[in-house]
Amino acid sequence: MNASFPTFEEFEDLVAEALAGLPDEIKEMMQNVAVTVELTATPEQRRAARLRPGQELYGLYQGIPLTQRTSHYGMVPPDRITIFMYPLVYHYRTPEAIRRQVRRTVLHEIGHHFGMDEEHLRNLGY
Questions:
Q1: d(CA 64, CA 68)
Q2: What is the pLDDT of residue 75?
Q3: How far apart are the C-alpha atoms of 16 and 99, rounded to whole Å?
């Protein structure tokens, strides 16, 4: 990785590294969810996250958390976790700081997939 700014492919590798580092039990419990990387959030994603002007979005979970799925859940598109590159590399300037925050962001969004709200995740340090 470049000393200050990873390429898109290097950033994708950091997200893949964070996912690969998950315990097997967590990987097995993740159901019908796709993890993607985008450069920045779209206006629709920013609205969905209810961001105020000036707020940044590092990641976004869109879907139905596992805790809210019913027995009739099926034949639906995958939930989506999106990790946004530009805000992360802008705020975290060193390769190690970027790596740590990518991991933290991935874990935060996976927490939403498992039904955790913002307050719970904040209390856990994510």
A1: 6
A2: 73
A3: 11
DSSP letters along 36-48, please?
A: EEESS--HHHHHH
Fold of 8-69+76-124: Zincin-like (3.30.2010)
49: exposed, middle or buried (C-beta count within 10 Å: 0-12, 13-18, 19+)? middle
- The strand pairing partners of 84, in sequence order, are 38
Residue listed under structure tokens 């027995």: 71
Q: Using a CB cutoff of 8 Å and minimum separation of 24, what contacts does 15-19 make?
A: 15/83, 15/102, 15/106, 17/99, 17/102, 17/103, 18/102, 18/103, 18/106, 18/107, 19/106
* pLDDT, greater one: 38 or 5: 38
The domains of the chain are located at: 8-69+76-124
pLDDT digit string, tens, across residues 75-87: 778 899 999 999 9
